[in-house]
Hints:
Blueprint: H1 4-28, E1 33-40, H2 44-61, E2 66-71, E3 82-88, H3 91-102, H4 105-117, E4 119-127
Antiparallel strand pairs: 1-3, 1-4, 2-3
Helix pairs in contact: 2-4
Amino acid sequence: MLNRRTLAVAVMIIAASAIGSALFAQMTGTASVLRVVVVQTADPAAYAAAIAEGQAILTGLGSEATIRVWQARFAGEDTGSIVAAIEWPSMSAMAADDELMGGSEEMDAWLAGLSELRTIVSDSLYQEITQ
Length: 131
């Protein structure tokens, strides 16, 4: 049977291993990356439909990204705000998509159409620290 001291040491080793794995993933570019774009739009449904079109374009280009649109529900004065989130499996996948998007006329046209539907409030990039 394990005593408390042995159990505490085991828990610390497991926690250190998990933290080390997350840090290694960040350093090697294997941690997920999330771009969060907060927008103002008069028509959330049309914006979400346009984002679905963008997902189809990205998929057709060979992207690993997943785009979703979120609407704040329990957010105080920000209730109803709209967020688009683009997730990549790694920083290197995001960099590859940057190259894909930069050379695509279809992507350029899609982005131009988005500017008619929304105004960007903020644009942030997050890197996952849990694994």
